[in-house]
Structures are given as C-alpha cells and as structure tokens.
Amino acid sequence: MTEADLGFVHRFRPASVDRAATLLMLHGTGGDERDLLPLAQMLDPQAAVLSPRGKVLEQGMPRFFRRLSEGVFDEDDLRRRTFELADFVQAAADHYGIDPGRIVAAGFSNGANIAASLLLLKPGVLSGAILFRAMVPLVPDPMPPVSDTPVFLSNGRHDPLIPADQTERLAALLRRAGATVTLAWQDAGHELTRPDVELAREWLSVLA
Ligand code: MLT
C-alpha cells in the first residue's frame, strides 16, 4: 500500500518502545507533514508519530479545512474534512499496526482546530489531545459523548487571533461534552513557546 492509498501525504515513525502511544501531529496553516516532527520528539521521544499534511490549499498554504476569513470557518468543509481525517487515522492504524485506542493528537492553530473537531464529531478516534492555540471549531448539536477524554489546551493571553473568551468557550464546550480539560494560559501570543511544550510534555507523561 502506498501513502496515497491512505488518503493523506504523511510521515510515520514507529514507536521506539513497545506499547507506546501514537502522536497524531497536526500542523498550522502553511505547515506540512514535516513541520511538527521536532515537536513530537520533544513531547515524547518514544512515541510513534503519524503526521499528515492538510489537503486544503489557501494561496498555496496547506490547511486541514477551508475558512471563509480569519477565524470564520466553512463548517460543511470542516465536517467533511474531519470525517476524512478520522478515516485516515483508522486506515493508518491498521496499516502501521498501531493501537487505535492510544492515539493522542497534538495540533497547532489550524491543526488544533481540526483536532478539537475530531474530538467533538468523532469521539473515540482520539484517546487524548494537546491543543495549542485552538478556538471553537463548531458547536455540535446534539453534544457528543467525549467521555473522560483528556485534553490539554494551551493558549496565549496576548494572542491577536484568539480572544480569551474563545478559549474559555472551547474549554467549556469540551467539558460539557465530557472531556477532562486542563487549560494552561501562556504569557504569549499565537506563537508556540517553550512553556507550552514543557507543560504539554509533563501532561502527556502522566497520561502515558
Ligand atoms: C490559522 O491561522 O490557522 C487560524 O488561526 C486558525 C484556523 O484558521 O483554523
């Protein structure tokens, strides 16, 4: 089977120890499948890594779903792309022989938004998620049972793209769906900082 058969251009790195979790790395706008490999290494050097490239192009920049303008999402496309990504994750789990019950997403910005959408629209695909600079992707009706899924949400107090109430609304939405949310505020903007990564690594080490 080729990469194309799995539906997304991607990188896969097997775990270096038995029974390690798999990190599903989801890049931000303009990134690609290589972008977050160093971040995966910092979060858990022993984990398997599955890192797809978003299929939507915005002026040549890969993303995971279409937006109508900054922070305004094309919800139909988001739903479709979320299901497509869920299918990829399941196909990759079969193909690479990874435990489908131990897949933790780690996404940045647009990648964090589709990870949040995966949690809300396809509960059970992810066993946890690290969301860096995420906003509310959509509000499902009815609310899904995201029972007890651990989520680490880390946003910047000075992020010009994500007002504080977006972060609070996302945390509340995930909690309402049943997720166990750890919210970490950084003295930062939209960019990822060392404390983001260190806190996420600690959170993940307790989870693993
Ligand atoms: C981005 O630049 O990717 C946005 O802030 C988030 C998104 O569009 O999903």
Can you describe this structure?
The protein is α/β, with parallel strands linked by helices. Helices cover 33% and strands 24% of the residues. It is built from 5 helices and 11 strands; from the N terminus they run ββαβββββαβαββαβα. α2 packs across α3. The longest helix has 22 residues. The protein binds D-malate (MLT).
Helix and strand arrangement:
Elements (H helix, E strand, L loop, with lengths): L9 E4 L8 E5 L10 H7 L4 E5 L3 E3 L2 E3 L3 E3 L2 E2 L1 H22 L6 E6 L1 H12 L6 E5 L17 E7 L7 H13 L3 E7 L7 H14 L1
Parallel strand pairs: 2-3, 2-8, 8-9, 9-10, 10-11
Antiparallel strand pairs: 1-3, 4-5, 6-7
The structure holds D-malate (MLT).
What keyword list fits this structure?
7-stranded mixed sheet; binds D-malate; 208 residues; alpha/beta; 33% helix; 24% strand; two-stranded antiparallel sheet; single chain
Binned strand content: 15-25%
Shape: globular
What strand line-up does the widest sheet have? 1-3-2-8-9-10-11
Helical residue percent? 25-40%
Number of helical segments with 4 or more residues:
5
* Sheet with the most strands, sense and barrel status: 7 strands, mixed
Number of strands: 11
What's a quick, concise take on this entry?
With 208 residues, the protein is an alpha/beta fold. The chain is 33% helix and 24% strand. The chain binds D-malate.
